[in-house]
Amino acid sequence: MTSFTPLTSFAGGMLIGLAAVLLMAFHGRIFGATGILSGLLRGGDMRDWSLRAALLAGMVLAPGLVLLVTGNWPALDVPVSMTAIIGGGLLVGLGVSYGGGCTSGHGVCGNARFSRRSITATLSFMATAFVTVYVTRHLIGG
To answer: Which family does the UniProt entry place this protein in (predicted)?
Structure first.
């Protein structure tokens, strides 16, 4: 069972888009979460590392901001086992490595630039997601 949250989803999408536009406007960088994290782990010059650390900190600390504004933690309901979460994370990491980016880099920024590579990647991971949901919910019964 999934929840339909159009207003919350719209607001989240707008914030992601705004963050991507601001990062490109002020730093000339693509907002790809995987690239941000991998660059942070690789190191490099301090200015670049600081920007990546600030972006990652914002992603991690955002639920605390929701708590401050609303008085409640964001709802988090993960209806799968820890094994499925870890397995899914490993598969996503593998896909990101082979696909040369993630949903934020390809799906948000690349598609906005009409990048054929990003459009192909987005179609690929969306098709995979559709098949995965169908198989796990309707064929396996999870």
So the answer is: Belongs to the TsuA/YedE (TC 9.B.102) family.
Instruction: Give the position of tokens 């690929």.
Output: 124
Looking up tokens 């660059």 gives 39
Residue 40 domain boundaries: 6-139
The yes-or-no verdict on residue 142 having pLDDT over 60 is no
Q: Each residue of 56-112: pLDDT tens digit?
A: 998 889 889 989 999 998 887 787 888 988 988 888 888 888 878 888 888 888 888
Query: CB-based burial of residue 19 (10 Å sphere; 0-12 exposed, 13-18 middle, 19+ buried)?
Result: middle
- Answer whether residue 1 is part of any domain: no
Residues in the chain: 142
Domains in the chain, number: 1
